[in-house]
Known about the structure:
Layout (H helix, E strand, L loop, with lengths): L1 H26 L14 E2 L9 E6 L6 E9 L4 E6 L4 E7 L1 E6 L9 E4 L3 E4 L5 E5 L3 E9 L4 E2 L10
Amino acid sequence: MHSAWMHRGTVLLVxxxxxxxxxxxxxxxxxxxxxxxxxxWVDGPPTLSPGVKMAVIxxxxxxxxxxxxxxxxxxxxxxxxxxxxxxxxxxxxSGTVYFGIGEKFEPEKTKALPAGxxxxxxxxTPHFAWxxxxxxxxxxGIGPTGLTYVNPADDPRxx
Length: 159
């Protein structure tokens, strides 16, 4: 019985998700097709330490609505514990990101997510990440988004 209810809940979430996404897709003014050679990299946002590159693929993460960005992290990069006001969805496009949940940076408690991995960091959930090699992730959500560090001293905007 328990698994039947879990299955029904999963089906309901999928159907609701399709309905929401269907509404978003219908609201588009046209198709969006971006090849890797079309991506325009710029310096990352001030919320991340220097060295990160960012590309806005769709929308504006600082405004209401659907957005999609790509972040290119250099080798040996750390993102200290932080949280976002919204659910953040991500896919690892290349390299490996080591992702952990918690208010303390504990690399030994991370999960290695190689290219092809996906994840969701729920709103207000403290998490952290690091890389050994250059790593590119595709992140998306319903904005506006932001980033608040658990320890304000970790915020590069304050340095």
